[in-house]
Amino acid sequence: MNFSHTSFGPITVVPGESGSTFPYCTSIFINDDARVLIDPGAGPGPLEKLKAETHVDIVVNTHYHFDHIAYNYLFDDAKIFINEREGGCFRKRQVIGSLLGLSEVYGDEWVDGWVERISNPDTKPSPYSPQNNHKWWLSSARIDGTYAWGETFNFGRVTMQMIGTPGHSHGFSCPYFPDYGLVYTADMDLTDFGPWYGGSDGDIDAFIESARKIAGLDAEIFVTGHEKGIVKKGEFTEGLATFLEKIGKRDEKILARLTEGRTLDELSDMGLIYKKKFLVDDWIYMWNKIMMKKHLQRLVKHGAVLKKGERYIAAR
Ligand SMILES: [Zn+2]
Questions:
Q1: How many angstroms separate the alpha carbon of residue 172 from the centre of ligand 1?
Q2: Cα(259) to centroid of ligand 1, in Å?
Q3: Percent of the chain whose predicted confidence (pLDDT) is above 70
C-alpha cells in the first residue's frame, strides 16, 4: 500500500485547512456512481475546489457537531443524511442546543438566544469556539434522510457500512469500507484536544467501548477527522491507547483536588479539563463543566468519590 497517495480506489481523503485542526476536519469524498461527501468540514479552500470540479450528490454527516457539518450549505443540491438519533438537529435547531448541553448549563431560554445569534451573519464571534458562527445556521437548515447503525450503502463500486460508535455524541457513527479495509474514525482522532465527551449526550464509558470497537474492525487504514489523517492499523491502535489513557489522567487530576469536599462549580472553575483562560468562552466553560460532571458521576459510580449533599470528596 502506498500511503503517499490520498486515494484508495474511488475513496479520496480530503485534508482540511490548518492541518485539519478544529474547527476544520478531514473530509472523505467517494467518486462512484453516486458522488458522496462525508463530513464537509475541510474548509472553504478544499471544498469549493471539489465543488468546482465535480457534482456532489450525497452529503453524509457522522454527527451534528460544527466542525463536521460546517460546509453542508455549500452543497445546496446534494441530499443530506445524518444518523437517525441526531436527525432532529436539522429539523429544529433547539435540539442541537439540548444535545450540546446549552439547555443543561444555561437553560432553554439561552438556547433560543443562541439560535437567534447564529441566524445573524453579523453576530460577533466567540473568542475560542465556533459558538456564534453563522455556518451553524446555514448548515443545519435541511435534511433529506437518516441512516441507522449497521446500515449498508452501495454507491456503485463502494460499499459503506455505518458503525454505531456513541460516546462522543449519542449518534456518532463511523463509516467503514470493508472492501477497502478503511474506516473514517472522525473524532476518535488521537489528538491532544480529545477524548471529547463534553455534550449532554456524551458518555465516557460508551466512548471507550466505541473506540475499542473501531480498533477491532478488519481494516488497515484508519482516517482520523483531525490532525493526523491517514494512519495504519498499528499506529492507530497504539495512538488510541495513549488517547484513552488521558481519561484516567483526568480522573487523577480531579481526585487530587478532592482531599476536601468541593462542589461541581468549584471544581469546574479550576480549569482542570480546559485551561482557565479558555473558560471566558461560554461554550468552553460549558464543555469543561459537563466533562467535569461526567467524570465525577463516573468516579462516584466506581466508588472512588463520595457525594455528600452538593459536595464531592475522595473516598479514601
Ligand atoms: Zn465531534
A1: 8
A2: 34
A3: 98
Q: CATH 1.10.286: does it fit domain 250-314?
A: no
Q: Residues 129-146: what's their mean pLDDT?
A: 97
Residue 187 CA to ligand 1 center (angstroms) comes to 5
| Distance from the alpha carbon of residue 169 to the mean position of ligand 1, in angstroms | 7
Read out DSSP for 54-77? S---EEEESS--HHHHTTGGG-TT
CA of 126 to the centre of ligand 1 (A): 18
**Rounded distance between C-alpha atoms, residue 160 and residue 206, angstroms:** 23
Q: What is the Å distance from ligand 1's center to 186 Cα?
A: 7
pLDDT tens per residue, range 262-298: 999 999 999 999 999 999 999 999 999 999 999 999 9
**CATH homologous superfamily for the domain 7-240:** Ribonuclease Z/Hydroxyacylglutathione hydrolase-like (3.60.15.10)
Give the DSSP letter of residue 175: E
Fold match, 7-240 / 250-314:
no
